[in-house]
């Protein structure tokens, strides 16, 4: 862990959080969890067509989020984390190769167009999200009765151009992070050289450090960049989610 620049420590922590942030659980386990959270199983299954379908759903795999890691992500990015998770499950991304990307072929991460889906649920507070956020799949057609109403009424519905290779997004949130406190990442500085030597397996750091463009410290983050990084760190779970949704 870096003791010199807190931004490097943040990169290390984020790398750890993003790993296995998406996970697979049997739907029945999630229903039991919701029941503990005072959401009745009957209420949860109200919109399942019939009892036979309900029994099928009990063994249906479901791609959801690791609650503990989501809490840590929220602590790190209270203003962007929930939107980034929402976008993973509720957006259209133009890059079909995204879930097959690694650092060795990261050129595929340029020119990504991310379009939030209209009519998606609005996220509530962190406790409700961690308890209740379960992405809907067309194959199960489950209606979720306990999704929270968001306090944020300004959810954007435009498309966003995301370039992970050059760590750039054209959204207003990203642009606002570039200010008088921003400085170029000077790769000649000893602390950055040492950090790079010790963190070559850190996917996020490799993308930033190996970029051909000048990168900034503090690193500017937005929900769209975080969304894409969640997918890059969890390609198998994301592919399973896409498969279940089709």
* Quaternary status: single chain
Low-confidence stretches: 39-52, 121-127, 133-156
Give the strand content.
5-15%
Total E-strand runs: 8
* Class based on secondary structure composition and strand pairing: alpha+beta
Q: Helical stretch count? A: 12
Number of domains: 1
The strand line-up of the biggest sheet is 3-4-5-6
Q: Rough shape?
A: globular
Account of the 3D structure:
The chain is an alpha+beta fold. The chain has one domain (6-245). It is 42% helix and 11% strand. The protein is built from 12 helices and 8 strands. The strands form 3 sheets. It has a 4-stranded antiparallel beta sheet with strand order 3-4-5-6, covered by helices on one side. A two-stranded antiparallel sheet has the order 1-2. It has a two-stranded antiparallel sheet with strand order 7-8. A hairpin with a 4-residue loop joins β5 (160-163) and β6. The radius of gyration is 19 Å and the shape is globular. The N and C termini lie far apart (41 Å). The model is unreliable at 39-52, 121-127 and 133-156 (pLDDT under 50).
Q: What is the fold's blueprint, element by element?
A:
Blueprint: H1 6-18, E1 22-26, H2 27-36, H3 41-44, H4 51-57, E2 61-65, H5 67-76, H6 81-89, E3 91-93, E4 112-116, H7 126-132, E5 160-163, E6 168-169, H8 172-176, E7 183-184, H9 190-198, H10 203-209, E8 216-217, H11 223-233, H12 235-245
Antiparallel strand pairs: 1-2, 3-4, 4-5, 5-6, 7-8
Helix pairs in contact: 1-5, 6-11
């Amino acid at each position: 862990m870096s003791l010199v620049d807190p931004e490097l420590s943040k990169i290390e922590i984020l790398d750890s959080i993003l790993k296995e942030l998406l996970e697979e659980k049997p739907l029945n386990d999630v229903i039991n969890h919701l029941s503990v959270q005072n959401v009745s199983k009957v209420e949860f299954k109200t919109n399942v067509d019939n009892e036979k379908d309900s029994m099928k759903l009990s063994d249906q795999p479901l791609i959801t989020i690791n609650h503990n890691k989501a809490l840590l992500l929220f602590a790190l990015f209270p203003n962007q984390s929930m939107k980034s998770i929402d976008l993973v499950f509720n957006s259209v991304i133009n890059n079909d190769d995204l879930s097959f990307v690694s650092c060795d072929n990261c050129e595929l991460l340029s020119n990504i167009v991310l379009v939030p889906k209209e009519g998606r649920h609005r996220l509530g507070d962190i406790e409700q999200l961690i308890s209740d956020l379960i992405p809907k799949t067309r194959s199960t057609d489950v209606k979720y009765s306990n999704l929270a109403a968001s306090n944020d009424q300004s959810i954007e519905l435009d498309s966003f151009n995301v370039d992970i290779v050059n760590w750039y997004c054209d959204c207003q949130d990203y642009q606002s992070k570039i200010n008088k406190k921003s400085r170029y990442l000077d790769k000649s500085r000893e602390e950055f050289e040492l950090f790079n030597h010790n963190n070559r397996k850190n996917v996020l750091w490799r993308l930033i450090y190996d970029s051909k463009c000048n990168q900034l410290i503090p690193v500017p983050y937005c929900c769209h960049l975080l969304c894409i990084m969640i997918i890059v760190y969890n390609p198998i779970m994301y592919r399973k989610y896409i498969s279940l949704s089709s």
